[in-house]
Amino acid sequence: MAGVSLKCGDCGALLKSVEEAQEHAELTSHSNFSESTEPVLNLVCSSCRKPCRSKTETDLHTKRTGHTEFVDKTSETAKPINLESPISNTGSGAGDAAPMDVDASGSGASEEMVVPEVDKKVIEELEGMGFSTARATRALHYSGNANLEAAVNWIVEHENDPDIDEMPMVPASAKNEPPKPSLTEEEKKQKFLELRERARKKKEEEEKKLEREREKERIRIGKELLEAKRIEEDNERKRIIALRKAEKEEEKRALDRIRLKLEEDKAERRRKLGLPEVDPASSKPAPKPSEPTLEKKMGLPVKAVTKAEKMRECLRSLKKNHQDDDARVKKAFQTLFTYAGNVVKNPDEEKFRKIRLTNQAFQDRVGGLKGGIEFLELCGFEKSEDGEFLFMPRNKVDIAVMNSAGKELQSAIENPHFGIL
Q1: What is the CA radius of gyration of the chain?
Q2: Which residues on adjacent β-strands are paired with residue 356?
Q3: Exposed / middle / buried, residue 340 (Cβ in 10 Å: 0-12, 13-18, 19+)
Q4: Are 37 and 3 in contact (CB under 8 A)?
Q5: How far apart are CA 383 and CA 373, in angstroms?
Q6: pLDDT 10s per residue in the chain (421 long)?
Q7: How far is CA 75 from CA 14, 18, 170, in A?
Q8: 3-state class (DSSP) for residue 148
Q9: Using alpha carbons only, what angle is made at residue 252 by residues 278 and 333, rounded to the nearest 5 degrees?
Q10: Rounded to whole angstroms, how far apart are CA atoms 275 and 278?
Q11: Rounded CA gap, 202 and 210, in Å?
Q12: Are 373 and 390 in contact (CB under 8 A)?
């Protein structure tokens, strides 16, 4: 395949014609060229039609104009190189200047490659600015060994190149002389200070931008945490409301069961006495006689002793029986309160409705105190046939009774005068 460009063996630049190769040789003193099948890029700006020959040129054009769209017309403009065109030296020097070495067969790649000679002082200055030796040498070589500013600009433009930290290599036969310094020591020092100040300002701007991004991120995370906390509080509030509603419904069902049981007992007594059955729908409750009348008629008060009062009396007896050990009594009350609370919260969990009587911890806290087991039996616990466990069947769990037990225990724990009067 015929070549469509000339490639500089010293810096790798692609050129469209022999004339461009000659101009490149005059500017860089490079003289090793070979024919290449790689076409020269032709990226045309869609807005202003400016042609660009590399990605670097398109980036610079975008920075200057803001144009971002380019059309690749490389295949349309690629043409075979005419090597028969004369290559003349248009410089101001004599006509006996060394001609360019254009190798159409590409045999120049087999020559010995060496590191190009560059200005050592500029290299030292670049290293002092923090650049590696390979990057500094590459920048100074490909910028034409011009000066410190040109090398720094080349590094800025090519900082994303994958081979930027590789040491450049040129053929040993190529003209490779370091240029004479173009700046005085004072000018170099001033230029170095300017570049360092520019780098410092750029770093400060980047740090400020990074700090702004961090602040935005902190604000975003804070808002998310507040929202999550609000949602959690709402869910907890809904859960508590649902739990209270369920407790009220359970209390209502317990009262209905008690009322139904009383009606059944009443009907059973009437059957035993041979009295006619009373229709609950048609019967009206008789007015209750006043308490003094009952006392006068029966000779004794008829006030029934409720289960809550029995529990209170059981707790009073427990405290009086062990009044010399207040700490143990208080611990027993707290343990009983925990048992009652576990049953209310988890009525379906058998482990909360079953207590091993031989458990040492249970004996130390409740079982060893007179009145402890009696209180649990008032709550609904029953001794197993083998006498090893206290167990409350699921169908005998009465939430209303357990709530009453909890209230009595809480009063006994919080009231320092409980059981004294």
Answers
A1: 51
A2: 389
A3: buried
A4: yes
A5: 10
A6: 456 777 888 787 887 777 788 888 877 877 787 877 888 888 888 887 788 878 888 888 788 788 888 888 887 777 777 765 444 443 434 334 344 444 444 444 456 788 888 888 888 888 888 888 888 888 888 887 778 888 888 888 887 888 888 888 877 765 555 544 556 778 777 877 888 888 889 899 999 999 999 999 999 999 999 999 999 999 999 999 999 999 999 999 999 999 999 999 988 887 777 666 666 555 555 555 555 554 444 554 545 568 888 888 898 888 888 888 888 888 898 999 998 999 999 989 888 888 988 898 888 888 888 888 888 988 989 988 888 888 899 888 888 888 988 888 888 888 877 766 5
A7: 15, 20, 30
A8: helix
A9: 125
A10: 9
A11: 12
A12: yes
Cβ-based neighbour number of residue 57 at 10 Å:
16
Q: Read off the DSSP letter of residue 376.
A: H
* Single-letter residue type at 95: G
DSSP-derived secondary structure letter, 305 = P
Residue with tokens 């079953």: 354
For the chain, the residue count is: 421
